[in-house]
């Protein structure tokens, strides 16, 4: 798995997941439960992971949809 996106913006993560799902690119959401540990403050970023062989395609999709990657 390779990191595609890291963000504290849950709407951005949801948008990226919808794009990947529509393109039938499998993904895995990491750090989703950290909000419970941090008290739901949103200071710890969530990570969106994709398979290494899908990373280039997923990256192109994020760029095409103007999702800013860090």
The structure class reads: alpha+beta
Major sheet characteristics: 3 strands, antiparallel
Question: Which oligomerization state do the chains in this entry correspond to?
Answer: single chain
CATH class assignment: Alpha Beta
- Give the helices and strands as they follow along the chain: EHEHEH
- CATH superfamily, by name, is UreE, C-terminal domain
* CATH fold category name: Alpha-Beta Plaits
Could you explain how this protein is built, in words?
The protein has 70 residues and is α+β, with helices and mostly antiparallel strands. It has a single domain (2-64), classed as UreE, C-terminal domain (Alpha-Beta Plaits, 2-Layer Sandwich), CATH 3.30.70.790. 40% of the residues lie in helices and 21% in strands. The protein has 3 helices and 3 strands; from the N terminus they run E-H-E-H-E-H. It has helices at 10-22, 34-38, 55-64; strands at 2-7, 27-30, 46-50. It has a 3-stranded antiparallel sheet, with helices on one face. The chain starts with a strand and ends in a 6-residue tail after the last helix. The model has no long low-confidence stretch (mean pLDDT 89).
